[in-house]
Amino acid sequence: MTLTISAAEEKKAEPQCPVSGKAISKDHSVSYKGAEVYFCCPKCPKAFEMDTKKYAAKANHQLVQTDQAKQVKCPITGRPDREDKAVTVNGVEVNFCCGNCLKAANEADDKVVMLFNDKAFEKGFKVTE
């Protein structure tokens, strides 16, 4: 018996609050990079705003996961990305320019931090308008 999971099914991971890691509610949000970051409760936006840098990678990941940002280049080098060099990170497919970047991502202890930190986000993603 073979189990096949389509890319659409694999991408259905639910967005999480960047502060608590719990399921988000559209009732609790803050403006961030020209988009909205969502939280689980009214307390988390305050924690986020007090230390945005601490939660930036998870917030950037959420922007892509909620289709408010899209990938435009490799987040490691800033070069054009290739669909055949990809990894799925908590429900978000991330493409790379080459096998070396893909290998580095696969070996990372925390893929969200590596691929969605502010520097990587600036290189590889763009908030949609």
Q: What is the number of independent domains?
A: 2
Largest sheet entry: 2 strands, antiparallel
Count of beta strands:
6
The residue fraction in helices comes out at 25-40%
Residue fraction in strands: 15-25%
Give the overall shape. Answer: elongated
Strand order of the largest sheet: 1-2
pLDDT average, as an integer?
A: 92
Low-confidence stretches: 1-11
Number of helices: 6
Helix/strand/pairing class, anyone? alpha+beta
- Secondary-structure element series: HEEHHEEEHHHE
Description:
The longest helix is centred in the middle third of the chain and has 14 residues, at 52-65. This protein is of the alpha+beta class and 129 residues long. The model is unreliable at 1-11 (pLDDT under 50). The termini are far apart. The chain has a two-stranded antiparallel sheet. It contains 6 helices and 6 strands; from the N terminus they run H-E-E-H-H-E-E-E-H-H-H-E.
